Amino acid sequence: QVQLVESGGGLVQAGGSLRLSCAASGRTFTNYPMGWFRQAPGKEREFVAAISWSGGRTDYAESVKGRFTISRDNTKNTVYLQMNSLKPEDTAVYYCAAKSGGIFRLPTHVNEYDYWGQGTQVAVSS
């Protein structure tokens, strides 16, 4: 029932920046932990970042720590992923995800999430 729509992807040179947005529907959005994942051709979908419903807790994959920042604005039902110092290895389709129900820790695996967007393409050239 929850719909997630990503935007903000595109082509950028190495070292550049992009900000992805994920717009969510539903009144229960503020109760949902949210995450970003990415998938390159021929590879499994991998965890990028996660954020609690309040925004007070975040988690990042080691490969993006210090470069990416996840945030959310619950008044706009939107989650963001600010990506700086982009590398060619960051090239992938980026997906927004939401988990229903409560959590003890932030979910970091694909099978822990219940809702997914259609993805937005990010391409980083050398």
Question: Can I get a quick summary?
Answer:
This protein has strands at residues 4-7, 10-13, 18-24, 34-39, 46-51, 58-60, 68-73, 78-83, 92-98, 115-116, 120-125.
Structure report:
- This protein has 126 residues and is an all-beta fold.
- The protein contains no helices and eleven strands.
- The chain has strands at 4-7, 10-13, 18-24, 34-39, 46-51, 58-60, 68-73, 78-83, 92-98, 115-116, 120-125.
- Strands 2, 4, 5, 6, 9, 10 and 11 form a seven-stranded mixed beta sheet that branches.
- Strand 7 (68-73) and strand 8 (78-83) form a beta hairpin.
- The mean pLDDT is 93.
Jot down its keywords.
about 130 residues, mainly beta, seven-stranded mixed beta sheet, four-stranded antiparallel beta sheet
Proportion of strand residues: over 45%
Helix-strand topology string: EEEEEEEEEEE
User: What percent of residues adopt helix (DSSP H or I)?
Assistant: under 10%
| Tally of helical segments | 0
Largest sheet: 7 strands, mixed
Number of strands: 11
Shape: globular
Radius of gyration: 14 Å
Structural class: mainly beta
